[in-house]
C-alpha cells in the first residue's frame, strides 16, 4: 500500500503512477482510471489526455514549467520526481509552478521522499507526498512542524519574516 | 585574568563546568529576539531526533550524512569533527567562554579557527553533538549550514565597523543574509556548497573575488548605497576569479537578487559530477554575460517583490546589534608614543599587529594565532578564556575571528595597548607577524582531515622555524603563504603570494608550489612554478624564492607580490630549480614545438 500524505493526513491514493519500461520514454495509457503519466506521454497524446480530466503528469526536476504551462488549467495533479532526495531542482520547479504560473491543483512529491525533507518540500509548494515505502508515517506527519517560523519567503509564507515582524 | 594565565602556565586543567555568564560590557553583537532563538532551539530538537533515529538504526548513514553535514558534523580520519558557526566571525566574550567550556567538556580542550571564520572541534562524540548544539543555542550560537550543499556561513572583513575605509557596516548585511539563507527551503539541496562574502569597505578584506557570490558595497556620488555583485569565483580544483555580473545593485534588492542567482544555480548547476557542481563551472560554461542575462531575467520576476528590503528592516537589524561606547579621546596618545620610541619589541608588534581605527584614540589589535610550533588557528580552552577576559578588559567584550585564522580585538584604547601587549605576550598571542611570512594560512591537513592528500601543519611549522629571524621577516615584509593539504583548498593556497598544495604521488606526500596569487582588490590566482617537492625540501624552496625576491626587488618598499607581477615567474624558477635545469626544459619545449 502506498503511503500518501496530503494536507497533512495519511490518505488512500486513488492515482496510479505510470512509469515507462526500461529504455522507453512513454507508457501505455489505460482508457479509464486516474493515472499519472510521464511528460513525454502527455506531450505525445496531449489533445486526447487533456480532455479526460483524470490524467495527471509527472515531471523530473530538470523539466521547465514552460513544458506544461499551457495545460495547467486542466491538470488535476502534477507530480515532481526526486530520483534522490539530495536533488533539489524540484524545489525550484515546484515553487515556480505555484508562484509564477499560479498552479493550484495537487502538487505531489514522488520518488525518494523522506521524512527529513518534508518541511522543505511543504514550503516550496507541495501539498502531497508519496513517501518512500520504508518511511514511518507518524514520524513524517510530525516533520512538517520541525520549524514553526521561517525567515525568507516561501510558497506557504509569501511574506518574509522581516515584513511580518514589523506588522506584529 | 591572572587565574587563567597561571593555569595556562602550569598546564592545569580546569574542571569543566559551564561558565558563569556574568554581565559583559556593551559589544557589537546581534542579539537574538524570541523568533531567532526559537529557530536555533528547534534545530537542536530536530538534530537530536535525527541522531536518535540514526543511532537506533532507522536512519541510514547515507541518509543521515547530508543532515549531519548541514549541522557541521563530519566523519574525519580519527573521529567526528564539528564545525561551529561563528557568523561573520563575530563573537562575544560570553560566547568564547562557552566555546572554551564546550571544547573542554566534550572535546580535548582545544579548537581550530578556520578560514571561514568558524571554529572546529576535532574529537566530539556523535552522541554528544545534540548536547553541544544545545549548549551553543544557550549563547545564541549554532552550527547550522556550516557544511553540506547549502549556503554556508557568510564571511566578511574582520575590521567591519571600525575600519577607516568603511562604506557600510558589513555585519548588518551579513546578518540579513544569514537570516535569508537559514533553512531556506528552496535552496536546501543545492548542487554543491555555496559561499558568500560581503565586503563593506573600500579595500577588499573579505576575498569577495574568490567566492561563489562576492558582494562589495559601494556608495554613489549622491550617497546611494548598493552592491557590486561578483559571481563564480572560487578556489578548489578549478580556481577562478569571479565575474562581475552587476555593477550596482541598490541595497533594497539584495535578497531578491540573491534569490535569482541561487535559483538559476539550483536549476542548472551540474549534479552529475561533484567536481563540476560549483557555480563557477556553470558561469564558465555559459559565459559570464549569458549567466548574468539569465539572472537578470529571473530577477525581473522577483524584483520589487516581498523580499525587497526595507529601511525599517535594515534599521531593525542594526538596532539588534549592540554597539560599543566610545569615549571622546584625543587623536594622539602621548603614553603610547613614548612606549613606541623606547621599546623596540613593542614598536615591532604595534607596526604589524595594530591597525588604525575610525574613532580617535582607539585601535584594532590582531592577536596572532601563528606562534611557531602551534598549528595555525589552534587555541586551547585556556587561551579562549584568556582572550575572552582580555576582550572584556580592553575591547568591550567583543572578538572577531579572521579568515587568516587570527583573532581581533577591534575597539581598544590606544592608551591600553602597551598593557594589552604585555598580557598577549605572556599568553603567546603577541607574535608580531601579522601579514608576514610566518602568518601562514593553513588547513588542518592530513593529520586530521580525511580528505587531505598530505600533511600541512608540520610544513607550516618547518617554514616558521626556518624563518625565525624577526629582522629578516620585517625586511621581507608583507608576504602571504597559504597552504592546503588537498585540492579542496581550505588553506586558500591559490591566493597566497606563495601557495603550497599537498598532493599524493603514488602514496607519497609531495608539495606543489605556486607564486603570484593574491586576495583583495587585485585578486589573482597563483601559477605553479614547476615540479613538486618532498616535504623536507619545502622550507628550502621558500628560502630560494625569498632570495630571488630580495635580489630582484626594485626597492625596499616593493612587496614580494609586486616583484612577481613585475618580473614574472622565470627568475624565481631559476632560483629554485637552477639555470641549467631551466635551459634543459626550454630545449625540450623547443624540441616539442619543432
Task: Describe the secondary structure blueprint for this structure.
The complex is a heterodimer of chains A (168) and B (594).
Chain A: E1 3-6, E2 9-11, E3 16-17, E4 35-38, H1 39-44, H2 46-52, E5 55-60, E6 77-82, H3 89-99, E7 106-111, H4 118-123, E8 128-131, H5 137-143, H6 161-167
Parallel strand pairs in A: 3-4, 4-5, 5-6, 6-7, 7-8
Antiparallel strand pairs in A: 1-2, 1-8
Chain B: H1 2-10, H2 34-56, H3 61-69, E1 73-75, E2 80-84, E3 90-92, H4 93-106, E4 110-113, E5 119-121, H5 129-137, E6 155-156, H6 170-181, E7 196-199, E8 213-219, E9 225-231, E10 243-250, H7 254-268, H8 279-286, H9 288-302, H10 311-320, H11 334-342, H12 344-353, E11 354-356, E12 362-367, E13 378-380, H13 381-394, E14 398-401, E15 407-413, H14 417-427, E16 441-442, H15 457-466, H16 470-476, E17 481-484, E18 498-505, E19 508-515, E20 527-528, E21 533-534, H17 538-552, H18 560-567, H19 570-577, H20 579-593
Helix pairs in contact in B: 1-13, 2-3, 2-5, 4-13, 7-9, 8-9, 11-12, 13-14, 15-17, 17-18, 17-19, 19-20
Structural overview:
The complex is a heterodimer of chains A (168) and B (594). By secondary structure, chain A is of the alpha/beta class. Chain A is built from 6 helices and 8 strands. Chain A has helices at 39-44, 46-52, 89-99, 118-123, 137-143, 161-167, and strands at residues 3-6, 9-11, 16-17, 35-38, 55-60, 77-82, 106-111, 128-131. Chain A has an 8-stranded mixed beta sheet with strand order 2-1-8-7-6-5-4-3. In chain A, strand 1 (3-6) and strand 2 form a beta hairpin. The longest helix of chain A is centred in the middle third of the chain and has 11 residues, at 89-99. The mean pLDDT of chain A is 95. Chain B is an alpha+beta fold and 594 residues long. In chain B, strands 16, 17, 18, 19, 20 and 21 form a 6-stranded mixed beta sheet that branches. A 5-stranded antiparallel beta sheet of chain B has the order 1-2-5-4-13. In chain B, helix 6 (170-181) links the parallel strand 6 and strand 7. Chain B is globular, with a radius of gyration of 24 Å. The termini of chain B are far apart. The model of chain B is unreliable at 1-15 and 21-26 (pLDDT under 50). At the A-B interface, helix 3, helix 4 and helix 6 of A face helix 2, helix 3, helix 6, helix 7 and helix 10 of B.
Amino acid at each position: 500500500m502506498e503511503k500518501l500524505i496530503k494536507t497533512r493526513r495519511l490518505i488512500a491514493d486513488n492515482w496510479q503512477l505510470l512509469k515507462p519500461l526500461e529504455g522507453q520514454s512513454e507508457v501505455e495509457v489505460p482508457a479509464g482510471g486516474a493515472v499519472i503519466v510521464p511528460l513525454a506521454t502527455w506531450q505525445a497524446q496531449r489533445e486526447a489526455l487533456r480532455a479526460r480530466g483524470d490524467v495527471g503528469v509527472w515531471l523530473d526536476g530538470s523539466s521547465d514549467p514552460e513544458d506544461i504551462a499551457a495545460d495547467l488549467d486542466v491538470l488535476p495533479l502534477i507530480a515532481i520526481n526526486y530520483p534522490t532526495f539530495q536533488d533539489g531542482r524540484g524545489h525550484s520547479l515546484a515553487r515556480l509552478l505555484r508562484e509564477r504560473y499560479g498552479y493550484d491543483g495537487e502538487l505531489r512529491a514522488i520518488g525518494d521522499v523522506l521524512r527529513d525533507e518534508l518541511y522543505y518540500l511543504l514550503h516550496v509548494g507541495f501539498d502531497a507526498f508519496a513517501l518512500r515505502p520504508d518511511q514511518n508515517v507518524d514520524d513524517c506527519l510530525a516533520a512538517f512542524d520541525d520549524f514553526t517560523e521561517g525567515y525568507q519567503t516561501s510558497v506557504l509564507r509569501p511574506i518574509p519574516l522581516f515584513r511580518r515582524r514589523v506588522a506584529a | 585574568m591572572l587565574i587563567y594565565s597561571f593555569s595556562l602556565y602550569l598546564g592545569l586543567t580546569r574542571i569543566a563546568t559551564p561558565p558563569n555568564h556574568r554581565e559583559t560590557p556593551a559589544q557589537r553583537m546581534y542579539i537574538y529576539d524570541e523568533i531567532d532563538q526559537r529557530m536555533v532551539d528547534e534545530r537542536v530538537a530536530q538534530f537530536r531526533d535525527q541522531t536518535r533515529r540514526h543511532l537506533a538504526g532507522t536512519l541510514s548513514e547515507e541518509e543521515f550524512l547530508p543532515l549531519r553535514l548541514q549541522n557541521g558534523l563530519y566523519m574525519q580520519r580519527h573521529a567526528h569533527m564539528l564545525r561551529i558557526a561563528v557568523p561573520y566571525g563575530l563573537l562575544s566574550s560570553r560566547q568564547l567562554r562557552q566555546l572554551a567550556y564546550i571544547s573542554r567538556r566534550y572535546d580535548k580542550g582545544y579548537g581550530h579557527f578556520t578560514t571561514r571564520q568558524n571554529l572546529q572541534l576535532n574529537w566530539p562524540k556523535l552522541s554528544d553533538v545534540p548536547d553541544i548544539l544545545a549548549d551553543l543555542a544557550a549563547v545564541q550560537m549554532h552550527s547550522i549550514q556550516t557544511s553540506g550543499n547549502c549556503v554556508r556561513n557568510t564571511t566578511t572583513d574582520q575590521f567591519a565597523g571600525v575600519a577607516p575605509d568603511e562604506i557600510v557596516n558589513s555585519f548588518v548585511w551579513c546578518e540579513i543574509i544569514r537570516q535569508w539563507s537559514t533553512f531556506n527551503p528552496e535552496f536546501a539541496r543545492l548542487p554543491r556548497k555555496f559561499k558568500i562574502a560581503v565586503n563593506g569597505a573600500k579595500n577588499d578584506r573579505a576575498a569577495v573575488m574568490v567566492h561563489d557570490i562576492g558582494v562589495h558595497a559601494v556608495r554613489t556620488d549622491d550617497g546611494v548605497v548598493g552592491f557590486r555583485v561578483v559571481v563564480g569565483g572560487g578556489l578548489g580544483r578549478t580556481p577562478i576569479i569571479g565575474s562581475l555580473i552587476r555593477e550596482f545593485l541598490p541595497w533594497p534588492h539584495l535578497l531578491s537578487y540573491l534569490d535569482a542567482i541561487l535559483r538559476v544555480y539550483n536549476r542548472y548547476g551540474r549534479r552529475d559530477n561533484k567536481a563540476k557542481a560549483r557555480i563557477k563551472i556553470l558561469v564558465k560554461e555559459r559565459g559570464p554575460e549569458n549567466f548574468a542575462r539569465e539572472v537578470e531575467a529571473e530577477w525581473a520576476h522577483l524584483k520589487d517583490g516581498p523580499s525587497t528590503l526595507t529601511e525599517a528592516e535594515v534599521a531593525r537589524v542594526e538596532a539588534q546589534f549592540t554597539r560599543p561606547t566610545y569615549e571622546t579621546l584625543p587623536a594622539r596618545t602621548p603614553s603610547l608614543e613614548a612606549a613606541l620610541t623606547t621599546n623596540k619589541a613593542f614598536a615591532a608588534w604595534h607596526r604589524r599587529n595594530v591597525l588604525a581605527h575610525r574613532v580617535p584614540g582607539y585601535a584594532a589589535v590582531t592577536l596572532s594565532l601563528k606562534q611557531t610550533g602551534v598549528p595555525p588557528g589552534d587555541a586551547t580552552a585556556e587561551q579562549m578564556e584568556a582572550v575572552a577576559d582580555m576582550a572584556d578588559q580592553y575591547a568591550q567584550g567583543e572578538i572577531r575571528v579572521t579568515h587568516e585564522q587570527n583573532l581581533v580585538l577591534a575597539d581598544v584604547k590606544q592608551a591600553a595597548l602597551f598593557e594589552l601587549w604585555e598580557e598577549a605576550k605572556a599568553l603567546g598571542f603577541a607574535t608580531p607577524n601579522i601579514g608576514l611570512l610566518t602568518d601562514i594560512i593553513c588547513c588542518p591537513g592530513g593529520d586530521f582531515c580525511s580528505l587531505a592528500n598530505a600533511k600541512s601543519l608540520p610544513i607550516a611549522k618547518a617554514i616558521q622555524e626556518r624563518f625565525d629571524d624577526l629582522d629578516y621577516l620585517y625586511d621581507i615584509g608583507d608576504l602571504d603563504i597559504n597552504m592546503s593539504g588537498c585540492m579542496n583548498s581550505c588553506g586558500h593556497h591559490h591566493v597566497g603570494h606563495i601557495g603550497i598544495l599537498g598532493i599524493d604521488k603514488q602514496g607519497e606526500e609531495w608539495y606543489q608550489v605556486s607564486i603570484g596569487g593574491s586576495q583583495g582588490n587585485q585578486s589573482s590566482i597563483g601559477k605553479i612554478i614547476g615540479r613538486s617537492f618532498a616535504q623536507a625540501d619545502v622550507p628550502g624552496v621558500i628560502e630560494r624564492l625569498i632570495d630571488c625576491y630580495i635580489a630582484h626587488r626594485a626597492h625596499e618598499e616593493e612587496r614580494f607580490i609586486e616583484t612577481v607581477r613585475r618580473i614574472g615567474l622565470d627568475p624565481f624558477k631559476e632560483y629554485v630549480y637552477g639555470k641549467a635545469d631551466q635551459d634543459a626544459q626550454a630545449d625540450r619545449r623547443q624540441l616539442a614545438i619543432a
